[in-house]
Amino acid sequence: MKCAYWPYGESFFHKPTGRCSDGLIMIDYFATYLKLPLIDAYLNKDGNFTQGVNFAVGGATALNTSVLKLKYNLTAITNLSLSVQLDWFKSHLYSYYVDDKSDWRDKISKRLFIMGSIGSNDYNIAFLQGKTLPDLYEMVPHVVQAIQLVVEEIIRLGATQIAIPGNIPVGCIPMYLSLFKKNDSNIYDELKCLKQHNTHAQFHNHQLQKNVVNLQKRYPNVSIVYLDYYEAFREIFQHANLFGFDETATREACCGTSDDEYKVNADVFCGNKGVPVCENPDEHISWDGTHLTQHTYHALVKHLMPSLNRGIKNVK
């Protein structure tokens, strides 16, 4: 995984930690706002999990790899799908509370579960492996259902506070802008982002929001909040200078190289030998053409915290 190599982590840790940015990522900023220490990854054998645990894995999909292959003829970059992460969570529970199930339910009920921007990797794989937009729309109900099943399972295990994020407007991401660029102004919106890709992201988000409403009705004693990553990102993208970004660099990668304006090359990605890094990552929205800079992640979380505070009972 390229995120495990330099220059990932350069701005905060001054070394790679597996986080796909120049430093911190969203879960780190959520933890900071909640006055928690940085949350260790479950796969970190030396991790301290007393305040929380991060089960996310770069490239993980909502749908199982077998479903992606058999139903859509897609090849995932990792077999660590959402269901695998759920299994890790269960194993973590059983190892911590092996003798007292009531104790684990009590502790879980006081914890906040943030699901992560799930589904984006399923669609990324489909777009990058040549699937058509109708194919992508066909995937949405299955992706949303996969998210729902995991949410319901963690509720069954005792969760009472759950945040479910939508997807960002991928049509504004340098990798997409580079791969799908055309000399046709009609495919771009007023922010010079790809219309069709953003419309698909909105469709996913609308279906997910409807699903969240249904879950809220089905589980009235559980606080379930939808986090609107899409609108938060567009707000930052549209008013980049107000958030401290260089307006001329909103559509280019900080770490990347290419002959076009997006500074990203899927064949020579950030982390490869000779790939340059911009002087000030904080001025860039995109870190490597796919992932965002820590400055962007910080701005997103700051924008989202009021929604989280309104929707979750015990978040301070």
TrEMBL record:
<keyword id="KW-0732">Signal</keyword>
<dbReference type="Pfam" id="PF00657">
    <property type="entry name" value="Lipase_GDSL"/>
</dbReference>
<keyword id="KW-0325">Glycoprotein</keyword>
<dbReference type="InterPro" id="IPR001087">
    <property type="entry name" value="GDSL"/>
</dbReference>
<dbReference type="InterPro" id="IPR035669">
    <property type="entry name" value="SGNH_plant_lipase-like"/>
</dbReference>
<comment type="similarity">
    <text>Belongs to the 'GDSL' lipolytic enzyme family.</text>
</comment>
<dbReference type="GO" id="GO:0016788">
    <property type="term" value="F:hydrolase activity, acting on ester bonds"/>
</dbReference>
<keyword id="KW-0378">Hydrolase</keyword>
<protein>
    <submittedName>
        <fullName>Uncharacterized protein</fullName>
    </submittedName>
</protein>
<dbReference type="InterPro" id="IPR036514">
    <property type="entry name" value="SGNH_hydro_sf"/>
</dbReference>
